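Budget justification aside, the reviewers requested a transparent look at the raw inputs and outputs of the sequence design task funded under Objective 1. We therefore reproduce one unedited record. The lines immediately below are the structure tokens for a 670-residue chain.
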């Protein structure tokens, strides 16, 4: 399992990892210091403050007693709230876990880290990870003498094979000094009793060990080991993420409680949450017993809204959504002598603020390298934040939720759906449940917030511009098929090729049995920022497989093509590598079924390449609309010039009966 560096060995300048009792140290160049070290231990002249951040996975806004829950029992966390500060408008940086975790350790919006969705298992096509080129907590705090630790969930890589410390984006590669009980295999639906399937190298400390208890013991040990030096510790719980599995005695306790059968009360979750509460109690007690409580900011928060909407009421929505139920989370701060007891903080704060706060407490001065700001003035009651907006961008499908983005400014929040730009405006002071859209009543305010949100989306570069934006200014291909097929290779994917001809500037394929052809041009994309636009012609109207494609192909066994299925009015993507279609890790695009019609006059379908990501846009006669985006960098890295040089702009058809035509294909690059 991943472990800590043995006594006498410095973590600085090394990447370390362990499996079982073995430890491997790999020489590495020292990481760049993000901030100059101060001349003293902090601006206050005292020891820099420790920071312990306890994250609870999938905890809903109203599941703690301190937030009004009367079924779950969380006495330790509730005590910290009474003795410290309770935040009423704390936000996760994203509505799902991985981007929020990236924001926590970088202090940046998730889009800047390239991680905007939860990361999949190793069979995903993307192989995404948090790049070590992005400064994280060890870079920021190491120059101030801090040791940094991670206990528990990381979930910032999609690689789960090979030596732990050599996996791209692993926490040791980011400079963490100690990493304990971080998943070696993909976590999937969780596992809470030893032996843990995703931690095969982690030996139990005691029979029947519960994972939340193990993380508590590891946290106590870490704090004790580093009692004489400043530290930043992330205690990252796997609980209370599904599949729920609590200690049997606690589950029985809650099943016997009045109201156990009434929503939103869930006995198994309550049992798991009580274990988390006991963990937090052990951490707080250890800090007190070691005399570190007055030198330590202890934060407890969730990584996103709860997946069970009843746990977020009266907030709207839940996990995966940018309505309040998906991103507003419980957060409690405890720091005796610094945070006044019973403090209630109504100012909006975010996960992106944790690292800037830690730097501030270390004696540094957070600046524009962060999107977040230090919340220390809010904690101590000495000032505000001086921040006007918070932003979220989630360009993905999850369940019934479609790609959308949001901005909060003061009491107002605007939610924008990325497909067609439809926006909703809410007054959170009067309507925390976001039940009344005010965009029609206050069009000026909606327009202003929409403009700021659009500027933010463009600035973070999470989505490439639509094809006819001025960024695509260099023509590479302009094919209306007037000149025949001299510049094209006809690649049969199925055994039957049908009849292919060119007439009236259109490519025509006629078939009486299933035909699937890819037409590969002789033009390779000259940049990793490029766009191809397909103008469909006519469909047979008889066959059920009428489909057109646009994208890139190397040959009949290797291609990345966006498809439009006319029979179902459905769009999607096909990635074929060495003859194998790869769909693992793909987003469920069912929400787009039946919503796209390329038989409308003037319709166009676009494939936009930007690094390892490709994005689909459609024009149904009313301008470009965003459809979906996909990252194929793990299976096909089109951001690599050598890989890209092997591919050519391509279109394709699939038909089982009748005649299908393609009007033309154009491609431009930046």
């Amino acid at each position: 399992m991943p472990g800590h560096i043995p006594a006498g060995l410095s973590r600085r300048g090394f990447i370390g990892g362990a499996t079982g009792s073995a430890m491997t140290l790999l020489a590495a160049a020292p990481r760049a210091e993000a901030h100059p070290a101060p001349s003293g231990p902090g601006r206050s002249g005292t020891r820099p403050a420790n920071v312990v951040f306890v994250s609870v996975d999938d905890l809903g806004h109203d599941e703690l007693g301190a937030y009004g829950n009367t079924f779950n029992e969380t006495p330790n966390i509730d005590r910290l709230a009474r003795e410290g500060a309770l935040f009423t408008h704390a936000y996760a940086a994203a509505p799902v876990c991985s981007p929020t975790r990236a924001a926590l350790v970088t202090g940046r919006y998730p889009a800047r880290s390239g991680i905007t969705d939860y990361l999949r298992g190793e069979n995903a096509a993307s192989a995404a990870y948090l790049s070590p080129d992005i400064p994280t907590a060890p870079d920021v705090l190491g120059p101030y003498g801090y040791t940094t630790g991670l206990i528990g969930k990381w979930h910032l890589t999609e690689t789960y094979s090979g030596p732990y410390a050599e996996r791209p984006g692993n926490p040791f590669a980011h400079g963490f000094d100690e990493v304990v009980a971080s998943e070696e295999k993909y976590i999937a639906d969780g596992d809470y009793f030893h032996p843990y399937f995703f931690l095969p190298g982690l030996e139990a400390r005691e029979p029947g060990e519960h994972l939340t208890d193990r993380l508590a013991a590891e946290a106590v040990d870490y704090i004790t080991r580093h009692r004489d030096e400043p530290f930043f510790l992330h205690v990252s719980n796997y609980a209370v993420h599904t599949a729920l599995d609590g200690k049997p005695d606690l589950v029985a306790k809650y099943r016997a409680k009045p109201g156990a059968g009434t929503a939103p009360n869930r006995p198994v979750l309550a049992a798991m949450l009580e274990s988390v509460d006991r963990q937090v109690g052990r951490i707080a007690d250890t800090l007190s017993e070691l005399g570190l409580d007055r030198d330590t900011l202890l934060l407890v928060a969730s990584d996103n809204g709860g997946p069970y909407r009843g746990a977020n009421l009266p907030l709207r929505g839940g996990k995966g959504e940018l309505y309040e139920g998906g991103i507003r989370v419980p957060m409690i701060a405890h720091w005796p002598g610094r945070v006044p007891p019973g403090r209630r903080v109504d100012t909006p704060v975010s996960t992106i603020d944790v690292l800037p706060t830690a730097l501030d407490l270390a004696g540094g001065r957070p600046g524009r390298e962060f999107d977040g700001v230090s919340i220390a003035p809010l904690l101590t009651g000495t000032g505000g934040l001086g921040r006007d907006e918070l932003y979220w961008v989630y360009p993905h499908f999850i369940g019934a939720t479609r790609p959308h983005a949001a901005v909060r400014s003061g009491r107002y929040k605007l939610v924008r759906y990325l497909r067609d730009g439809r926006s909703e405006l809410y007054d959170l002071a009067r309507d925390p449940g976001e039940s009344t859209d005010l965009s029609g009543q206050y069009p000026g305010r909606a327009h202003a917030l929409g403009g700021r949100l659009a500027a933010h989306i463009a600035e973070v570069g999470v989505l490439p511009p639509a094809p006819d934006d001025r960024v695509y200014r260099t023509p590479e291909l302009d094919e209306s098929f007037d000149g025949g097929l001299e510049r094209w290779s006809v690649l049969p994917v199925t055994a039957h090729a049908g009849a292919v001809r060119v007439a009236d500037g259109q490519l025509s394929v006629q078939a009486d049995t299933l035909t699937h052809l890819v037409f590969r041009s002789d033009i390779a994309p000259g940049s990793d920022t490029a766009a191809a636009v397909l103008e469909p012609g006519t469909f047979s109207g008889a066959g059920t497989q009428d489909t057109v494609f646009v994208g890139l192909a190397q040959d009949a066994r290797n291609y990345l093509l966006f498809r439009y299925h006319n029979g179902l009015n459905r769009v999607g993507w096909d990635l074929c590598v060495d003859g194998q279609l790869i769909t693992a890790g793909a987003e469920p695009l069912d929400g787009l079924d039946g919503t796209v019609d390329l038989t409308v006059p003037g319709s166009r379908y676009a494939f936009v390449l930007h690094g390892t990501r490709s994005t689909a846009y459609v024009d149904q006669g009313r301008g470009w609309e965003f459809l979906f985006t996909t990252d194929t960098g793990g299976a096909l890295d089109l951001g690599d010039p050598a890989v890209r040089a092997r591919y050519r702009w391509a279109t394709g058809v699939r038909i089982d009966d009748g005649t299908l035509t393609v009007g033309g294909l154009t491609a431009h690059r930046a």
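The chain has a mean pLDDT of 91. The chain has twelve helices and 30 strands. Computational costs for records of this kind are itemized in the attached budget.
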